[in-house]
Amino acid sequence: AAYRRDLAAFVAFVGKLDLNAVTPSLLQRFMASQGVQLRPCGTQRAKATINRYRVALKALFAFCEARWWVDRNPTSILRCQRHRGLPPVVLDADEITRLVNSEFTGPTGPRDHALVCFMLLTGCRLAETAALNVGDIDLEERVAILRSPKGGDPDRVMLSPQLAEILKVQVGSKTGPDEPLFTARTRRLSIRQIQRIVTARVYEVNITKRITAHSLRHSFATRLYNQTGDIRLVQLALRHSHVTTTEIYAQVEAKRWRKAVARIA
Hints:
Layout: H1 2-14, H2 24-32, H3 34-37, H4 47-66, H5 93-100, H6 109-122, H7 126-130, E1 137-138, E2 143-146, E3 155-158, H8 161-172, E4 183-184, E5 187-188, H9 191-204, H10 213-228, H11 231-238, H12 243-264
Antiparallel strand pairs: 1-2, 2-3, 4-5
Helix pairs in contact: 1-4, 6-8, 6-9, 6-10, 10-11, 10-12, 11-12
């Protein structure tokens, strides 16, 4: 939908001009226009948003060029701006310990504790956690089988002895291997429900950071990198296709190291 809006803005800018008449200079004028550079309220758009316009235009002309609808591709002059997003918000070692050692209140406390600990101590994604069945947890081998909603071969993640012990009660409360591991009134928890549980339980133990369910994955990765210094191991644990995706955790720790050294002087 966002790319469609970007291309609609381009069509409105060029009018009924034939695509073969689109020149690099015209593309540059479009990219410099207020419609691209500024939000409706008049403030500057983020670099990531402006880059999205470039990506949409490149995709459009690559598509047309592949079908011989245009004689040339004028988008080679479009270069995406490099931007560094904010580092992920993560839990520190004390906060992780506080969450893992907490006894959550209420009748769903044990379930919620097992859920939060599973995500925090494996780095699993929301969808992977929601899709877990009882039979996917092997407490003897201390592994969990992850089945992607998109299909494909399942992945495996390792369970620490502490996490295996926490999950023992949750697994033991179920009746069969095909039953969802995390449920509410026998129905599998949705992604939205899991997000709400994480937010509520983090708040319950007086952690004031803005922690989301995905923050637990970031926290796991940062802690693993801190303990090992091995970015390839973190890549393997997070199941990233490319190590460049994982390198953010090394960059965050390098910044913390630099700040710590500066305070010594």
